Amino acid sequence: MNVNKTKPLFFFIVKTGDQGYRRHGLDAERTKGRDEMFTVMCSGTKVVVNPQGGHLEDVSISAGGRVMQPLHRAPWRTGEDNGGIPEVFDDGVAPTLQSLSGDFFCAPFGADDITDTPEHGLPANGIWLYEQGINHEDGGVTAIFRLREPILGAKLFKQITLRPGHPVVYQRHRFIGGCGALSVAHHPMLRISEGAKLTFSKKAFGATPENAVETDASRGFSALRYPQEFDSLSSVELLGGGRQDLTVQPGPPNAEDFLILAEEKGSKLGWTAAVLPTAGYIYFAVRDPNVLPFTMLWMSNGGRKYPPFSGRHKGVIGLEEGCTFFGAGNGPSTRRNWLNDRGYKTAITLNPHGDTVVDFAFGAIPLPEGWTEVMNISVTERELVLVSPQRQRERVPFRREWLSTL
């Protein structure tokens, strides 16, 4: 791959009020409707970061001669129901919902009983400030942001790195200092209305929380039975009886549901994969299961009647990776609960004298011919290896050292 060393491969556009616009790198241009966004680019792969909540507003990944946009953006963000103009809501709609796009970091995950911020806490609702941009010798780029507000006394930094030829978005969140325990999670979302097949690193069990996502029929509906525990995502009990294979998505229609999958003890690499045959690509994500021991599925398929969902948020799945007790908030996650009774961490512990790191990477590749699902993902020093049911292999350039805690 030829990389032009004479010009930076990343840029961002920063709105600076009365001081106008500061340019970082070359090729930066003000784009209508994006003048408050940060853009990071490398070899055709692009990540647009919304400083409101740090949501990855738009992600384009280049691989195999294709450009893929694997992550979901809510229709009120795309403006698809409003002439292409993002919709505006009053303060009754939380910032994290107004910005709902791509992936974002949650601390705590679910109810914020630390600062009384809306759901998913300050990282998903607060303001992220640009700190530093780095151009690496190999042509890679890193953008570093800092959350304006501290969490439990800790400063929180977001790092996004892109590498030439890597169809991967590398993310790292670093808490500097702080004291106490904190539930955390990543919140990537895919639009799977045309169908997807999900597979995962080996799980010990799955469960739904004590209460349904939607309990008021005038506001919405949840199709699964709550609570329940199950051995396989391929057989999950429904509220009205019977079972459904939730490895095949989308899930139950006109429903809003949530569940967790607990990693098998002793797992060395946590991975998630979704094959989208109509869209023609594979989404994959990797993490350290000792840091993020749960994969959580948020199945949003038209089950919420109230704004901004209004029954139109359909065919969406959150493939969320976390360390939390469901979405019950920080208190239940940091106290004794039935998940940590089984030996699973449900909160990370901040280091008052150092840093606490949460690494997560996701990417996409064109769907190889004949692939219906991903059977396994492994990692070497320089590659991710995806394996099909027929034992075909796809090798993806990857920097293993990014998963620093492995």
Structural summary, described in words:
- Helices cover 5% and strands 40% of the residues.
- By secondary structure, it is mainly β.
- The strands form seven sheets. The chain has a nine-stranded antiparallel β-sheet, with no helix packed on it.
- A hairpin with a 4-residue loop joins strand 4 and strand 5.
Quick structural gist:
The protein has 406 residues and is mainly beta.
In terms of topology, how is this protein built?
Blueprint: E1 12-15, E2 21-24, E3 38-42, E4 45-50, E5 55-63, E6 66-68, H1 75-78, H2 95-98, E7 105-106, H3 121-125, E8 128-135, E9 141-147, E10 154-162, E11 168-177, E12 181-182, E13 184-186, E14 189-191, E15 196-200, E16 203-208, E17 228-230, E18 236-237, E19 243-244, E20 248-249, E21 255-263, E22 270-276, E23 281-287, E24 294-301, E25 316-323, H4 330-334, H5 338-341, E26 348-349, E27 355-366, E28 376-379, E29 383-387, E30 393-397
Antiparallel strand pairs: 1-2, 3-4, 4-5, 5-6, 7-13, 8-9, 9-10, 10-11, 11-27, 12-26, 13-25, 14-25, 15-20, 15-22, 16-17, 16-21, 18-19, 21-24, 22-23, 23-27, 24-25, 28-29, 29-30
